[in-house]
Batch of 3 targets.
Target 1
Amino acid sequence: MPELPLTLYRAAWVLPVCADPIRNGAVLVGTDGRIAAVGPALAIEPPEGCVIEELGEAAILPGLVNVHAHPELAMFRGALEDLCFRDWILRLVGAKRAALTEADFEAAARWTMVEALRSGITTLAATESSGASARALCEAGLRGVVYQEVFGPDPAVCGEMMDGLRANVECLRAWECDRVRIGVSPHAPYTVSDALFTATAEYAIAEGLPMAVHAAESAIEHQLVQAGEGDFAPGLRARGIDTPPRGRTTVEMLDRLGVLRARPLLIHCVLLDADDIRRVRDTGSAVAHCPVANARLGHGLAPYPELIAGNVRVGLGTDSVGSNNRLDLLEEARIASILHRARLADCGVLGPAELLRLCTLDGARALGMEDTVGTLEPEKDADLCVVSLAAPHVRPVHDPVAAVFHAARGCDVVLTAVQGRVLYRDGLLATLDPAALEPVMDDAARRLREAMT
Ligand SMILES: [Zn+2]
């Protein structure tokens, strides 16, 4: 990486996460892309030759961490509205197979990186079958994990699927660097056999690969796991695949199969009981909380406060834009707070300080990156998100953290930097060209519509 100019960012507020908000604060970023100092602007003397960036009425916070997205599916935004979950996933998988190409996935992944940069997301965990995000993260200059998906509900194809997974992971590892990691994701209980779950977990443990699983998302997944019944069962049986009861709950099943030994990121976890939460905690597994996607698909709301009370690592994810429609972590956090307050009839749940931590340090913890990012403190990488507090819909600012998480939106982000490198500033992207992606995305969307009619 070329050496960066020593840069001092000054703003009305600095939100370090690991310390109280600093009024008229500053962050000094070294030539190595790491944070050199954080504090009141008056206390940080600009070193000789230092570039000074005056950001004015804005808050500097750690870059936002989105722990669950499907970048390759960006063209599905708005294409799958108001469908029940079974139809939603069947139409998505069918249209993806029938209409889309590797070039489409590459464009969609880059498109998602554009959205991420414009909304202050500096770390993004992608779960996908094409692996397109590995290249897109590298090119964009973003940080992230790409969990290569594997599917196979028929135990007879387990060996074949594992061969394919190993080959895909080996290819994707070419993109691995200090910012980008490659992992694996056995997709979900209704698309993965017991044998494939166990084999993937053993592979992940042996190779030290991070792992993610969609788990405990929907009632029909629970019915399949618990009783071998429900909306997913007839389709599987029609393919000659047995649907025996596999566990009392999805989490209990994953524990029995050795999946939790890989300390996976469990995506969704809407349907958990106290025993499940204990298993997640005791195995050191983490949870990706995706409240908007879960609510829009009619699944319900994950027990976030109970997970936190149970000392589980939880990060916030948007999921795909095919279910959420937006990739805006500030909005995701605000809606999370509102939903949990409504559910518990408790105005003390998920206050602004907790939302700030959830979108930064807790997300980094859920992905095992807390030693590198998630707070503004010396020696950590300078992954920054700068939110303007100047717009009429944000002002007046009584509390900067509440202003960022309850009034500002992703489009109020004015600067995004990773390892000190400014990748987005005032509408301009340093590494990506959305205009060049537009024709590919438009064409993919047209083929998608044709395939779905
Ligand atoms: Zn997902």
Target 2
Amino acid sequence: MLVTSRTMCFEASTPCSSAETDESRAKVIYSLAPAMGHNAEGHPECSSRVSAIVSALEKARLTPQFRGSEIVQLKNFRTATVDDIANVHSKSYVSALEKAMEWASVQGVMPIDVFGDTYATATTFNESLAAAGAGLSLVDYVVAASKITKNPPVGFALIRPPGHHAIPKGPMGFCFFGNVAIAARYAQQAHGLKRVFIIDFDVHHGNGTSDAFYDDPDIFFLSTHQDGSFPGTGKFDDLGHGNGKGATLNLPLPEGSGDLAMRSVFDQVIVPSAQRFKPDIILVSAGFDAHVLDPLANFQFGTGTYYMLAMSIKQLAKDLCGGRCVFFLEGGYNLESLSNSVVESFRAFIGEPSAAAEHDDPSFFHDEPSLKVKQAIERIKHLHSL
Ligand SMILES: [Zn+2]
């Protein structure tokens, strides 16, 4: 379904007297699906995550209330349908998860995957549909906006549960439905955007997204992740299969990789890969667990690293695909670094200077393993002929 500019004005929270004027002014559009019922005491993937981000955005005065039409909240987004989900996941999994809600409503919180680290509650199914839908509606909005301006807003789905570990046949790693993967298929089917470039900078490998498109030449999946971290997949040599060979790029980086590493990776790997692929839209699995303060991994990104990524990816989308770009929240488990990093991303989207220096205390950081990073970059450039 295409969304007209008239619909966009209706759906967005800001007043809209002239579609063209307001659309060209909007620099970021976000949707919120915080899944407040999907929560387990003491679990890192908890219901405070999206609320913490919203509070930080308000404190930084980066909401529509303070920024007028520059920052737009998409309030009336749709829920994903079973058919949307079934573009990526098996229908038997979708119906089994729905059925599991009966048990969850009796048990309260129940473990639901083979590793035992993913839980479900009575609301998980519906809230996962809402999260996926919040991403799909942003795709609609951004695509429609790109038809009336060269500078459409960047979309940011502030949603949970996250999605990039969910495999076609089941939940995994705190994830239920592959929000990014579902949006990629949707962009193709609903908008005719054939070539989708997915950047996954979560500290963990996006194994679910990778599985969904491993033999697909039209969806390029690029993941940077900490070598050896959960779930242990995403090796250099995993390049895709069949017609999809070459459309998967995995860059495992050594423990301790940080801002310097990611800047080099962006310039030497992400940019040339995207330029060669020539995408119609860029989707981003935006995980914030590579931050130095995150408890689940051992990378050293600062909030400034996320500012750089947001700004650079926005520019890449502008250069290559009419600015069509949507970010999806994945990991990030230290509430403070998570919310500060999303705030920095918003600053980058609206073109404000970074305030990362306020948060990135130099004492948090130590030397990066620059030689190992250089070797990893050289190896991936060789494998992909970059
Ligand atoms: Zn992660």
Target 3
Amino acid sequence: MTEVNIENEIVLYNADCLQTLKKLEDNSVDLVLTDPPYNLGNFMRDRQTNLKKMRDNFFGDAGWDDLGNEEWKDSMDILFKEISRVLKKKGSVIMFMSLIRVETIVELAARHKFYYKTTGIWHKKNPMPRNMNLHFINSTEGWLYFINDGKTGTYNNEGKVIHDFIETSVTPGSEKKFGSHPTQKPEALFEHFIDLLTNENDTVLDPFMGSGTAGVVAKRRGRNFIGCELESDYYEGALKRITSEQKSLVLNNSSGVN
Ligand SMILES: C[S@@+](CC[C@H](N)C(=O)[O-])C[C@H]1O[C@@H](n2cnc3c(N)ncnc32)[C@H](O)[C@@H]1O
């Protein structure tokens, strides 16, 4: 396991999060913002889609979403157990998830006494129109919102109505300078949740950080970040990306620009 700790504001682990979470302190995190494997790798391969041929970086072939159903459920069960311990009372969870797996996640979260708040939709405005004459274009993913040990947590809506639907473009190339990740989330999407559900100096945890999107946004918004990633290539990319954000923040601040 590799661990990098930058002034306790950013702590990154190249390791299995199910092991690493056990080392984190109780009541130390304000928001878990994460995008775990959706348990779709085998499902998509079994359906013999031709996606792989059409897409160099098809995530179903990346190797990190290949658990059997029961094994995946067990891993999510351990995840909820650990995040219920590390989250503060009334801390929030936003978990992205395939819509066909939402019910399983709601059940697992309830087992660990999370209070269910919302199932929302992320709509991608410009997905690749693969097989557009054969079926509906896949342009949505789900997200779930839970509260730990309480019913309401930080919710900075400032009197505005916030819908359970968020729309962005797919991740732009400008956010992929440090390497390509097949399911990299756009920064604007994570910014929406970090602004709404945390305050400055709070701590955000992403146990499945991939390319480090949650870390980049957390840093930019003045939050601390703990991230974990199993694959060394993604971890190295995330480390470079997040530390580059940290450096540009320091440079910006010293030149008086925010
Ligand atoms: C859906 S991707 C996350 C993408 C990320 N939100 C981004 O914007 O780049 C899930 C990531 O979890 C990682 N992963 C899978 N199992 C893991 C585990 N047990 N511990 C840590 N990371 C894991 C995968 O390697 C993959 O990069």
